[in-house]
Amino acid sequence: MSIKNLSLIFFAIVFISCKSNKSENPFAHLSSEERSKLADYYHEESMKFNPWFQTGKLHRIYKDSALLAVPDHVEYMQRASYSYKKAGEHIKAMEMLNKAVAIDTTNGKTTALEYKAWSMLYFYRDYESTIKDVDKVIEISKIPHKACHGESCLLLKAQAYYQLGEYKKAIETFDSLFTLLKEQSVNPKDDFLANFYLARSYFKLNDLDKSLFYLEEQLSMPYSVKAELNFYAGQIYVLKNNTEKAKQHFLKAKELYLQNDKMNEPYIERFDEIFMNDINLEISKL
Amino acid sequence: MNYFKKKNSLFLEIKLSKENDTKRLYQIIKLNKNTLSLVYYDQREKITETFKKSTLKDIPKKEFSICLDSHPKEYYATDPDYKYTKGNNYILSKIGKSAPLTKGNGYITIHFTINCAKEIGRFGVEQMDRLYKPATYNPDLIKHLINEIALLKDWPDFVKDSYHHDIHAFLMFKIKNGKIVDLCP
């Protein structure tokens, strides 16, 4: 073999060994306990930059470092995905979230899937996936009243049916939710969103009286959102040819809107959330 | 914009803020008839930018700039959220009406920055399919979305703080069978 060929082989070996050293996890030499501690430290550091810098480079470096230390940590992976989702970098966000869901569900857990169901509904308006994810959460957890990222999973599923135009299925799902709430000694009327979208489902089915019943019932509840309730009650009175009542409700909706007694969810726009131009348009048509 | 020479190196100083004297310093590493290459540092990263002489006939009449050289505040980090005052349905009906068709199902996300004068610029695009993987859609539709978003005027007032004078936001158009059917988030 010539000296030239020997030199080439030597350089190739050096190159490959350098490359494999680079891709090796820098925390490989640590014990799992040490890696876990290190990941916790990086996670805590990343949280110091919330919420302003959650989409920033430094936050992501800390999050990536935590995941280098504990690559299969579901919570850290899910929370790292927030940085991308909130910045609108959805391909990366969903890649991370799907990976977290896969690890979590393989272990018989549903936390990441619960968050995914919530994101599918509100962030991506992907209604088919919402229903699929909620069903899977309930199937794995065997808890019908399971919460998905702070809201009842069934509430998410019912809204998904509502958005798909499957109003009867939406009503059935709200009814199931109310039955479960009663079993837990919770008053179903206290769930504003469920009652609001129940009223909206009846409206879409042209059952104006039932829709009005639920809207007016919610108007008397202390923690409901009043601008939307008045607005949609006003629309029903327009269809019932009661212009006077319709006007009263639209004007009340306007007054409450200006007092910020309206839907105002962080990150997303709720379904059927109203804006001032919607109210003004209805008033102008009277 | 100023340039100066130091130890045989050429530097370019560009003013970045409309409101104060914030500047960024670039080193010119290549300069000839058709090319300009600059290098600057962002945190720990060395960033090189190369500009070629444009052959475009239409040059934008107005240049967009942010008001403060910092990471713009995200739309959700204001209280309340920085949302279009007329809502998503208004945008959807305005922009969706004459939108060119495309093929497939998924999402087109248009990123942009709104500066302290409520001007819009720094556009970016992300395209993905229903499985949240990279995809491509009709460039005419992308162009339409960017042009229409640039025309949106009814953004709410924004209370500036020491670190943020601009907002980063995005609109995510849901595509079904080649048509825009929804707007998130």
From TrEMBL, chain A:
SUPFAM superfamilies per the UniProt record, alphabetical: TPR-like (SSF48452)
Source domain of life: Bacteria
Xref: InterPro entries: TPR-like_helical_dom_sf, TPR_rpt
Protein name as it appears in the record: Tetratricopeptide repeat protein
Organism whose genome encodes this protein: Paenimyroides baculatum
Organismal lineage: Bacteria, Pseudomonadati, Bacteroidota, Flavobacteriia, Flavobacteriales
